[in-house]
Amino acid sequence: MEDIEILKKLTGENDADLLQALFDDASSFCLGYTNRTRMIDALRKPTRDLAIIAYNRRGTEGEKARSAAGESYTFNDFPGTISGVLDRYRLARIGGKTYEAKGE
Length: 104
Description:
Radius of gyration: 16 Å
Oligomer: single chain
Strand content: 5-15%
Shape: globular
Largest sheet: 2 strands, antiparallel
Structural class: mainly alpha
Number of strands: 4
């Protein structure tokens, strides 16, 4: 199943363009964080997770916390469960260059 179809099922959102934009942004973040140039299968789930977080955070951009009607909400920009996975697939820079295996 494609990533956008999975996002549709997980969010209930039918706007494929919105989900694609969120996934593209999350993908760019994951690739940049891991110093990679292409998506590997192990990064697909954390990328979808970041896209869902972005979907759920629409309208609250820039907020760290919110209180209303006796309830308090705190927003975590980058959960440890996602960063833990991304850290495992992060490529090191050596001499200012990143070496990415072709078969990954």
